[in-house]
Amino acid sequence: MKLLIYFLLCFPGKPVMSKTIDSLTPLEISKIIEELKITKFPLELADKNIKISIQTMPRRFRKNTFFQVRPKMNVSLLKPSTKRHYQIEINPALYTNNPGREAIRSILMHELQHVVDFTNKDFFELASFAYKYERNKAFRFQYERETDLHALKRGAGVGLANYRLWLYEQIKKEKDLEEKKRMYMTPEEIYIYLSVIENVRCKNIFIEN
Description:
Layout lengths: L1 H9 L15 H14 L2 H5 L4 E6 L10 E5 L13 E6 L10 H19 L3 H13 L1 H17 L4 H13 L3 H10 L3 H22 L1
Parallel strand pairs: 1-3
Antiparallel strand pairs: 2-3
Helix pairs in contact: 1-9, 2-4, 4-6, 4-7, 5-6, 7-9
């Protein structure tokens, strides 16, 4: 019986892609963000009442990008970090073609982790970070991969892998695809991470029982 419980818990089967959300709207994304602030970022975002809004992504950023976050470029930038207004920009193509709810929840955890990072920086630190992020590709790649790990630790799970699989299907040029794979964790890397975490958890369950 002990072995049966172990295998049922530790080998649940192959992940399945979630279905597209037919009625995806800015309001729906806002609801997901508010839910994640409470359930996944209660201390960092919910308790501090961090203001986050949804904006349409400018056309110049839309190539192979569907979500991005940044502080709003107004006087709030000069305020204390928790008083700034942050915005998540959405590529409008997502409203007619999306990877499903769990994938969207997972990539939004990644974006909200950026907001957490920004709230830990004052104006000058944020300006220095932005300059380094744009100018130093190695730094940018490392930072985005670390952000993926933070999202996984908060429970992004298979949804993040599903988002990347969907994203790869949207990219037409092989060069652009390879750059995405270097910049962010790939589905294979995510599955390996999840497998390691799950094996540790299952071994603890097996030992405790």
